[in-house]
Design goal:
With about 150 residues, the chain is α/β, with parallel strands linked by helices. The chain folds into two domains: about 90 residues, FAD/NAD(P)-binding domain, CATH 3.50.50.60; about 40 residues, no CATH class. Helix content is about 30%, strand content about 25%. The chain is built from four helices and seven strands, in the order βαβαβββββαα. Strand 1, helix 1 and strand 2 form a beta-alpha-beta unit. The longest helix is centred in the C-terminal third of the chain and has 14 residues. The termini are far apart. Bound molecules: flavin-adenine dinucleotide. Flavin-adenine dinucleotide binds next to helix 1, helix 3 and helix 4.
C-alpha cells in the first residue's frame, strides 16, 4: 500500500495479526493524518503491545488523540460488501462502513538474494528481515554478531 499506490477508502480497518509492532500503528497514524476514519484491531490486549514501554508511553496516547478506534482482543473473521466482522472477546463484532482492510502484521522474508549468493560464496550469512520479519534492533544485533566474527 505504501509503495505500490493502492487506493484507500474513507473508512479503514488495519488488522494487526498479533505482531503488535510498528506497522499497524504507523499506518493508522498516517491514514488518520490523511483524514481517514481508522480502526485498528489486534488479538493482543492493546495496540502496540509488543513495543517497549518507553515507546508505548509516547505512541499509544497519539493513537487515542488521532481518534483511531481500537479493537483489542479481536480477530478478523469475515470481510463482505457491507463491512467486516471481528471476533472480539470471543463474540462477533460487526463493523459496517469499512471500505478498506489492510493487513499489517508478520510478513514473509525476502530471501532470493541470500539463496542466490549462498552456493557461490562460502561466507554469506543471513541476518535481519531476510531471516524473519521483526524490527531494526534484531537486524542490527544479528549484523553486529556476524561482523564481529569477520
Ligand atoms: C511500515 C513499517 C514500519 C516499521 N517501523 C519500524 C520502526 O519504527 N522501528 C523498527 O525497529 N522497525 C520498524 N519496522 C521494521 C524494520 O523496518 C525492519 O525490521 C528492518 O528494516 C529490517 O532491516 P533489514 O536490513 O534486515 O531489511 P530491509 O530494511 O528490508 O533491507 C533489505 C534491503 O535489501 C534489498 N533487497 C532485497 N532483495 C534484494 C535483491 N535480490 N537484490 C538487491 N537488493 C535486494 C531491499 O530492497 C532492501 O532495501 C517497520 C517495518 C514496516 C514495514
Amino acid at each position: 500500500m505504501l509503495e505500490r499506490g493502492a487506493a484507500v477508502g474513507d473508512e479503514v480497518l488495519i488488522v494487526d495479526d498479533g505482531e503488535g509492532g510498528w506497522k499497524g500503528i504507523a499506518l493508522a497514524l498516517q491514514l488518520a493524518a490523511d483524514g481517514k476514519r481508522v480502526h485498528l484491531s489486534t488479538p493482543l490486549p492493546y495496540v502496540g503491545a509488543a513495543l517497549g514501554p518507553f515507546t508505548q508511553n509516547k505512541l499509544v496516547p497519539r493513537v487515542a488523540e488521532a481518534g483511531i478506534v481500537r479493537h483489542p482482543f479481536s480477530l478478523l473473521t469475515a470481510v463482505d460488501d457491507d463491512g467486516v466482522t471481528l471476533r472480539t472477546d470471543g463474540k462477533p463484532n460487526r463493523l459496517t462502513g469499512i471500505d478498506t482492510v489492510i493487513l499489517a502484521g508478520w510478513h514473509e522474508p525476502v530471501t532470493d538474494l541470500y539463496f542466490d549468493l549462498k552456493p557461490r560464496h562460502a561466507s554469506v550469512r543471513r541476518v535481519g528481515d531476510a531471516v524473519a520479519s521483526r524490527t531494526m534492533l534484531e537486524s542490527i544485533h544479528e549484523a553486529e554478531r556476524v561482523a564481529r566474527r569477520v
